[in-house]
Amino acid sequence: MKAEIIAVGTEILTGQIVNTNAQFLSEKLAQLGIDVYFQTAVGDNVDRLTEVIDLASQRSDLIILCGGLGPTEDDLTKQTLAAYLGRPLIFDEEANQKLDRFFAMRPEHSRTPNNERQAQLIEGSIPLQNITGLAVGGLLEANGRSYVVLPGPPSELKPMVNENLVPLLSQDNAKLYSRVLRFFGIGESQLVTILADYIEEQTDPTIAPYAKTGEVTLRLSTKAGSQEEADAKLDRLEAQLLSVKTLDGQLLENLHYGYGDENSLAQVVFQLLKSNDKTITAAESLTAGLFQASLADFSGSSQVFNGGFVTYSIEEKSKMLGIPLADLQEHGVVSSFTAQKMAEGARLKTGADIGVSLTGVAGPGELEGHPAGTVFIGLATEEEVTSIEVLIGGRSRSDVRYISCLHAFNLVRKTLLKGKHLL
């Protein structure tokens, strides 16, 4: 089924309101397995609205009109669609009774003839009752097409869609099920390159890559009659994708860290720390507490994180973490040595199982001869102290700091997954 959404209202075209209904409806229809091919906005004009309805009827199976169901003269959606289809408008008894109750409770407001328009629908329509307003909507089958009329205010449209329209449309359509795979350590261009054959040959399930700051996701989607059927199809595709090798020869599975739109790398590490009963601390320079703030975003963070350090200057690194100032001056603050000493000092002073450090050049200029985006990340456990160097070039200060934290969380994640012998 191909769907088209028509938003009716001059106020949309003049920019007075934002058409959020189209986004909401597109998401709902996608979940039902209904493809939206076109979205149109048209003003409160009979001729132009008729033209748009006629075009939609030629190319779409489901035409949804939003707005123009109110009592005023410029609310003309039902009247225009009825005339186009050659059908009369009739009163819906339930909507009419709601009007009676509404005005009975408000004697200061007189019921006028134009209010009657809100209780009308096109003959042959299935009424869609308005839970939060007065204008009744409708679903109508005519000339091999399905037409839906909905109110414009989102506070009325959304309940009507969720409570009335979705159950009707669900009866004859397989639903769309999706799974989001999250990856760190590979860019979108490389991911698309190594998965080119799968992407070019996709039918069902489909594969859609999305780039995010510092990471990339794959959304796998399939139409199925049940969650079980969808899981079987998505499981097969996921296994195939994760077995693909990257350009440097490692399995894509090694860069896959989690699922879902909201399940961030920080959250994955937080859950790993909890499940392994481990604690963590951090000493941050260029990120100025961002790593620790990310941990604190999660409820129960005190179970894994008791505190840490923000040591921006070389003097504070020495004083707060117990690193000889002469050693810091010899090696420089942007160095593997300093990163390791910061992580080790933070762990020893707090008694945490894992110590993390971040030091480097956020930019825009150089520091100690290192270009902007040069970052050293240290990690200390009871058994091992190590560090990695990361180059995050061509990014803003905020991006360098954010991506640095992602690298730090990923380092912790890999350490936790390597085995408890390091901890």
From TrEMBL:
<comment type="similarity">
    <text>Belongs to the CinA family.</text>
</comment>
<feature type="domain" description="MoaB/Mog">
    <location>
        <begin position="4"/>
        <end position="172"/>
    </location>
</feature>
<dbReference type="InterPro" id="IPR036653">
    <property type="entry name" value="CinA-like_C"/>
</dbReference>
<dbReference type="InterPro" id="IPR008135">
    <property type="entry name" value="Competence-induced_CinA"/>
</dbReference>
<dbReference type="GO" id="GO:0019159">
    <property type="term" value="F:nicotinamide-nucleotide amidase activity"/>
</dbReference>
<dbReference type="InterPro" id="IPR050101">
    <property type="entry name" value="CinA"/>
</dbReference>
<dbReference type="Pfam" id="PF18146">
    <property type="entry name" value="CinA_KH"/>
</dbReference>
<keyword id="KW-0378">Hydrolase</keyword>
<dbReference type="InterPro" id="IPR041424">
    <property type="entry name" value="CinA_KH"/>
</dbReference>
<dbReference type="Pfam" id="PF02464">
    <property type="entry name" value="CinA"/>
</dbReference>
<dbReference type="InterPro" id="IPR036425">
    <property type="entry name" value="MoaB/Mog-like_dom_sf"/>
</dbReference>
<dbReference type="InterPro" id="IPR008136">
    <property type="entry name" value="CinA_C"/>
</dbReference>
<protein>
    <recommendedName>
        <fullName>Putative competence-damage inducible protein</fullName>
    </recommendedName>
</protein>
<dbReference type="InterPro" id="IPR001453">
    <property type="entry name" value="MoaB/Mog_dom"/>
</dbReference>
<dbReference type="Pfam" id="PF00994">
    <property type="entry name" value="MoCF_biosynth"/>
</dbReference>
